[in-house]
Amino acid sequence: MSEKLNPSDLFDVRAALSDEERMVQDSVARFTDERVLPIIGDCFDRAEFPFDLIPEMAGMGLLGSYFPEAYGCAGMNAVSYGLICQELERGDSGLRSFVSVQTSLCMYPIFAYGNEEQKQRWLPSMAQGETIGCFGLTEPQGGSDPANMKTHARRDGDDWVINGAKMWITNGSLAKVAIVWAQTDAGIQGFLVERGMQGFKTRDIHRKMSLRASVTSELFFDDVRVPDANRLHGVQGLKGPLGCLNQARYGIAWGPIGAAIACFVEVLDYTKNRQLFGRALAANQAVQLRLADMARRITTAQLLALQLGRLKDAGSLHPTQVSLAKWNNVRMALDIARDARDLLGGAGITVEYSPIRHALNLDSVITYEGTETVHELVVGREVTGINAF
Known about the structure:
4-stranded antiparallel beta sheet; alpha+beta; globular
């Protein structure tokens, strides 16, 4: 007779991982269990980011994990990075967002579009968590149409002068360097704007009901003078920021699986132990149908993410595949979080249980790095050959 299946891994996806990938997952899972879960409910309640965890995450190689060891990074593969995102988001989306922004939105453009001097200057200190970055693309008038960017940079001798504003920027007030995208006479270009440059200011956004254990800021540029040495010379046009977003979306395709598993495991235990009308809540057919559907959705997302990671490691990943996975997996996690909250009854509205926190966070995750509608249209364009944007 076959062994009992793991409810949160019904297709034994873990068996398809390499020994190194399992080791990465296990180490980050321990970190989440021992260091994140005991404090994250209070962090969310107080709207505080757990700053003390940054050196620990850096020491584990979680910042810039997939960049070469030559830049002080861990040199892991794409699947390992996905597993990092999954286990961190099992703790909280805010923590995964921190690592995702640092790695995919800040270190990646320096690695992909920067020169060797920029790489040597920034990447090692960012991998160690000594330098935090932020990514300035979204603007106050809208985020889904980056071509309508208002922030502008004009050439002035050996410098560039930047004016404009960015909004909804994760890690904004923590950052020592901001990757800022601006319109120029030669098209959109990226600049490394350093904290302390005259005219560069940040302001945190408060009273959030989502991503409360995360720093979200506005960036302001008032005649900020940036040397040409701080320009990302390797790219021009929208393909620069969009390339970064594709890297971040890959991690987001994995992360919400962790949030969904956290909600599922918690509500499974609750319904098996909660006694109503003389029997466990989980003994009701209606409850089992909902739990089974959660398991089905998680299993589908796990298989989708693993194949996505294998394609990325093989160098054959297509952006539409990332859009499909981000769309499917975030929607899956959000639906599970909301349904788990309902099954918990009144207990589900407190941060003593995780589903309400995950549901609120995922309402942001389904919006950033491309809304659900944008990703649906990306897939629609791919399958029809018609651009409906």
